[in-house]
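REQUEST ID: PR-0412
SUBMITTED BY: lab tech R.K.
PRIORITY: routine
TASK: structure prediction, single protein chain
INPUT:
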Amino acid sequence: MPYETKKIILEKAKGLLPRIRNAIYEPIAALTVSAWVTKEPVPYAERTSGSYMDVKPGDKWGNLWDCAWFRFEGRVPESAAGKKVVLLIDVNGELCLVDNEGSPYQGLTNINSEFDFSLGLPGKRVVDISESAAGEAIHLWADAGCNDLFGKYRSGTLKEADIAICSDETRRLYYDYEVLLELAEQLPDAGARKERVIQSLYEAALALEVINEETVARAREILAAQLAKRGGDPTVTVSAIGHAHMDLAWLWPIRETIRKGARTFSTVLRNMEKYPDYVFGASQPQLYQWMKEYYPTLYDQIKARVKEGRWEVQGAMWVEPDTNISGGEALVRQILYGKKFFQDEFGEEMKVLWLPDVFGYNGSLPQILKKSGVDYMMTQKLSWSVYNTHPHHSFHWEGIDGSKVLAHLPPEDTYNSPGAPRSLAKIESNYLDRNVSEHALMLFGIGDGGGGPGEEHLERLAREHNLLGLPPVVQESSLSFFEKLAEEGPRFQTYRGELYLEKHQGTLTSQARNKWYNRKMEKALRELEFAASLALALGGQAYPAEELDTIWKEVLLYQFHDILPGSSITRVFDESLARYEILHTRVAEMIEQTYANVAGLSGIAGGQAIVVNSLPWDREEVVVQNGVPYAVNVPSMGFIALSEELRSTRQASHELQAEEALLENRNLRVTFAPDGSILSIYDKVAGRESIEVGKKANVLTIYHDKGDAWDFPRDYRDTVAGTMQLESASASIEGSNAVLVQTYRYGESFLEQRIVLAEDGTTIQFETKVDWQESEKMLRTSFPVTVMSDQVNCEIQFGYLKRPTTRNTMVEFVRDEICAHQYIDLSQPDYGIALLSDSKYGFSAERNVLDMNLLRSPGYPDPACDRAEHKFVYAIYPHQGDFVQAKVYRKGYELNTPLTVVQSAGAAPAAGRSELRSLIQLDNPNVMIEAVKKAEDSEHLIIRLYEASGTRAQVNVNFGLTCETIEETDLLENPVAALQGMSSSAELTFQPFEIKTLRIKLNA
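STATUS: complete
OUTPUT:
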């Protein structure tokens, strides 16, 4: 007689698994449930302050984002004597049980929460009571949110609240059976191992026609032999660490993230009590800071597990930030604050950058990491690329300066691994570097408030540790994994340049107001730190270190990879914009107060104005104070008094013209078409046209955009919805500027551009205001220029990238939308044209066309995205020579960092230092000073410099005061070399794009 077919056996086995699961728990009594509902969270001490209600299964208790304190009461029936008793609780939302002091004890998640079910089931509803709880009274409090893991509303009703008996043997059988069933599906068809596993499953299924204690014991005995079979010498060993990826805001507001952290971390602690091999890790000091502030008892428990070595604090940054849009200095501060927090709080030195979910990785990041003592990087997001597969999972990532870090992408392509046999099988088969590596990483668990690993993950791993047919898996820290991987480092390949994600290019533009504020805050904080450093050098006011730290950390929070990119719900941006306005106003006040004090310390009379230049080159410009123009020449990183002698009295040149169809000065002649677009930009000095003949520039084009916050259609150019229609134009001479004001309308939207050409200017500025009310539309501008180059030069953090303007390959084709900061530039050896911006990050450069994404209005996840009033500035800069010879990067900085005019406070002059007018001067135009600040842990000043042109550079750094010591440090301000003593200068040599940090102590 033949054997039963494998197909029939596997179908029978799969049908049995739900039956086993349903036999684990037997409800024996209902709990009495009360709730006090509020709109926002309230602390434990105020838990009865909300609207009271009695709640029974099926009763509605809340709407989306409502909160409630639940009380569960009951008594365990005497019939449960000698049996394991649990509670089954599901409020169709997220829930956190607390102890008698109100500290988080365990998180629970509704079983119908949205989730990728291919990764498992998200629900957590079981609460352990005791092994012999008969007659025991139940009295529990729990803090609830009326939302699921991903911010969805799930009826707001109580699903269940029961006392139940748990059959532990049936529960163990379930995982025995599940692991072997999935193992059978992963094993090769021709092997005996698969046949034996399937036969065991079949025999166990026959024994379980009726599920009771005897049949469960018999089935477990049948399966035990196959679970006991061990693997041989491994080819790949999987390092597994429990993980709970936490988006600090996304489909829920920040306030809910704080509670998600408490639910998750308390669940981790409970599971650590039950599973001694369990090792868990979590990143983001900001999240730990919230736990310390809101849940100090929970935080102390976390610290104990960290000390024990079973909880790994991960990641070197304050949050997991976007790394495309965040500025270079902001990324340095992410690491500075992040590493300092983990060192101070836990005594842990962070060596691994933990960024599993950000939307691309800029080419300067390897140098930032290496100069911050971070040797390794983990991400998996590149697996989301649509067209091309990244060639490696383990590789050396080389930045634009040549720095390298060891990077690893978990081959399972997820940070929510179910830890199942299919996970291990995929890791082994998918690992692109298995030919040279024996180690791969697996991140298992459920994130975003889901408690990380549940019982199911840990039970599976206990059975898979060294199971024949699968690669062995060991639970250990990610640092332990990377140290093993580093031993294989010489065999890995190198990948140079940015790690471009072929997805989510819409995030370079979505939520434009947030991005505008981010740029303004980064620049304002730079200005404030320079001002405070200048005051410190003059012996003036105390440096506002504490307030600066607080503001910086909030700005870094908003650089989280679902806030700054614009991919969160409406409430997140309502709250961030409100806070940005407050922060920006406060920093502006501090800048004015500090510069006023600087003026007084310098002996400038009270009431007299000063002009400050925080950039490291002299600037000759016209500034306006009280309606009066002044022609000023302000020294590098210094200031001058604004005197009557500087008042501009010259008449506007006859070459300065402004008409509705023309703006002209001595350098440029700009001609406009009747529809408001630009027909010509003629460079009078170079004697050449900048706009392609027969084409129009600055056509404000609207495209259909039926994408979401993350993505817009790749073929958007084929779906033009129209252009902004010119309604009016008026030209005038305003002081030393030729100005053309144009107004446009499209649909319900209105746009005004103030196009400015300064008398001696070499740039044309477009000061833009938009009331944007379109839906599913995208607004762009473009400039078809007379420069042809196969590469476009794009400013990124601490340097630039050259990206292709051709579309010859699939890699080039998909990298159409690119990120840049203050400029993109097309240059030939003799000439070039740059497009500058004060707050835009999404660009495209194909052949000879420079294109900029101005606004988008997708409908998800924020249905109101960018339907608001906006302001921004961009500029076009034709130049002789290429972009390095023309110092394009300086034009970008000048657009983003205007001169500052402030009234003197009339303070007492600084003894012996009142003659100081320039704090720092450089003698090489290719070196930029990105930051001047007080040292974190001393009275030294810190100066951050970088080489901006991609060349080797020597520079003399000259200080306006004598320095007792001049040292070079790493990015964390740790000294690495002494340079000078009792000197006012130091000579530095830079490699291309190198970042250097100086620490100086001024002579008393």
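NOTES: Residues 352 and 401 are 20 Å apart (CA to CA).
REVIEWED BY: pending
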